[in-house]
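hi support,

uploading two proteins for the ticket. first:
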Amino acid sequence: MVTIKDVARVAGVSPSTVSRVVRGQGKVGKKCRAKVQKIIEEMGYRPNTNARALVSQRAELVGIVTPALHKPFFGSIAFGAEKASRLTSYQVMMRNSQNDPDLEVDAINSLREHGCENMILHSKFGDADTLKSLADKIPGLVFINRFLPEMASRCVWLDNVSGGRLAADYLFKQGHREMAIVSFNSNNEDQIDRINGVKQGLTARGLTLPEANIVLREDAGPDVNNMQEYCTHAVNELLSRDVSFTAIIAYNDEMAIGIMNALFDLGKNVPEDISVIGFDDLDIAQKCRPALTTIHYPIVEMAEYATKLSLQMTLEKEEVIGRTHLFMPTIVERKSVKKIDVV
């Protein structure tokens, strides 16, 4: 079995330097770190995490808690966290919360029982006081996709208002003056911010978004099981109203594709009759037909960043105090939006 001393001998460094590289903590020069990492891979060295956990009384684990790991968006969080953890000796352990605050706390406690002090939590509906209490107990707890002002240094979040503005600005530049929104009727801050962003973007252009052009259905939230059925009902409701629109802005890509399917079923072509724009930029957005124009949500990069931040908080605390961690969306142009000639 290859030991840490074997790696140190071949690399020409001390065992403590190898340890710092493996753990991702402490100061090691970039060239030295790359050299040691290369030798670790070549020699097939694997740290004895169980032994280290016994010594330190904590497990080298990064816990991931999301509502539903089977959904592509949340799977992307797990992928980003695993990608960042792969560079260290830490392993990833995952739990689902099903958007239930009680199950969320149970999942966190389960991870803590395994000695996990580093966690990435996606919590949209957890009570802020409860989350604050958990943060006080868990050194490496980081919140992803949510901003809590009193815990700003632990939050990795996206500017959803800017995302809404981007969608409105892009459609305006393509000649669209009348737009509609299909989303959920929930207290999800993301969808509220995105709608406000669209309104801000239109206001800046001297336009308004009539409330009748916004469909927020009562019968489902972001975790709706039958998205296609939901989108079909939403599109039918929008078309039944006496409103004009040339483009629909959807809450996310999954909904946007459901909307396109519903429009096709009604004999309407996308984008010739109605344009559609999504939000997230999931893999499926470029595989559907027409390929979906959408707002890119850098969720994999955010999850990588959140994981590194969590480890820094437990290993190098002084370097992260007072920092904020805001990410910005970008537009991805594909084929689901038609350019209209403005008369």
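and the second one:
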Amino acid sequence: MRHPHHYKIAAALAISAGSWGIYWLPQRILEDGGLTGGWGTIAQMIIGVLILSPIAVWRKINGRTFGLELPITGLLCGGGFICYALSFLLTDVVRALILFYMTPIWTTIFEILFLKKRPGIERAITLSLALGGLWVVFSKQTIIPLPENAGDWLAFAGGALFAGGMIKLEIAKTDGVFPTIFSFFFYGTLFNIVAGYFLKDYLGPMPTMDSFVAMSSFLFFISVFYFIPTGIVIFWSPSKLGAGLCSILFLSEILVGVTSSSILTDEPFGWREIIGSSMIVLGGILAVVLAPNTKKS
């Protein structure tokens, strides 16, 4: 049966994922503050680990799971996010968005391969609407979103990794959501360090310590009130709604991203954005309403 709070969880996920549509704004603030070349992302991940570590230690002392037992989940979710964040440094924002947000396709494929699910007609309808809307929004820049450079491949791989993480979260049996969120930050940080090493020519030299100190309050604020709270909802939801439905609701980030960039920058907001956004919204609503009533509570 569906979770008794199916619609509430879906709404919370859409809002949390949608909030990531303005992720470009704090990234821009960090860059203006001197944390250039992706070092703001690295700092955010490390701060997440530092904030959550006391809770992890307390859970370990009390014999409870605390996240390090979930390396695959952490690497898939954290690594997928890091690829997404770093792709913005190496390709156009539009291409990074559309290639990463192939996640609904990846989750559907992974559900068939690993969970032996057979998506019904409702998945075909909602997936067509959501991805069709995505194509309408971005088709002016790219008719067929094929990877063309290193940044494109990072975004493409990031979407596949994150989708794999959603599948793991759907079937995982964990002691609450804390182990998942801590594994995301911990293993995502490790992934970030390794990726940063191989991409050091693009990331550039480490910013001065003064830049980190100057932005420390802002980094702490977005970690405590933005990064961690939305992450809890995002990583808790797949076990309640299923990875496929969650991946469609994640497209709310596109809506917020397109709208916020048009309001706060000179990005256009015309008929493509209106029609495409409407299709994505309709696809998300139908995905929630038509979701098979078989999910365990």
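thanks. also noticed: The longest helix spans residues 209-236.
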